[in-house]
Amino acid sequence: MKNNNNKILMATLAGIGAGIAAGVLLSPNNGRNNRDELKRTLTKAGDDLNATIKSWTENLRSKSGKASGQGDDQLVMHGSWEDVKRLLRNNYEELTEDDLNYEQGSENELLSRLQTRLNKTKDEILKLLSDFRS
């Protein structure tokens, strides 16, 4: 199974590369426009690959019995949320007051908002919060 996944990944990357090469060679645009389009295409491909890997990771986690919301990935608040909130605001300017609104019992809503705003997985957010509380 692992070997098949590697083959699928390599075939996907080869297909992306062949498509980009063909697009550059056959494009009627000048060099600057080609480079800009190539940059956008590679950025989108990277984002798509990242989303796919996150999806696979979540799928594997759920199959192994560690579904979201169970076990180690629970948010447990210790200490002052105001201190953690201040550190988050200092390190992530894109976070708003609404993003950081926390009420006891609404941990999953907070995690969801942070995941969306910071474009991180639930595990990454939990580790981040854990590091700030330390």
Kindly summarize this structure in a few lines.
The protein contains five helices and no strands. It is mainly α and 134 residues long.
Bulk shape: flat
What value does the Rg take, in angstroms?
20 Å
Low-confidence segments, given as residue ranges, are 67-72
What helical percentage do the residues reach? 55-70%
Query: Structural class, from secondary structure content?
Result: mainly alpha
Mean of all residue-level pLDDT scores: 78
Order of helices and strands: HHHHH
- Tell how many strands the DSSP assignment holds: 0
Number of helices: 5
Proportion in β-strands? under 5%
Features:
single chain, 134 residues, mainly alpha
Question: What would you say this structure looks like, in words?
Answer:
By secondary structure, the protein is an all-alpha fold. The chain has helices spanning 2-26, 31-63, 81-91, 107-118, 122-133. The longest helix has 33 residues, at 31-63. It is flat and about 60 Å long. It starts with a helix and ends with a helix.
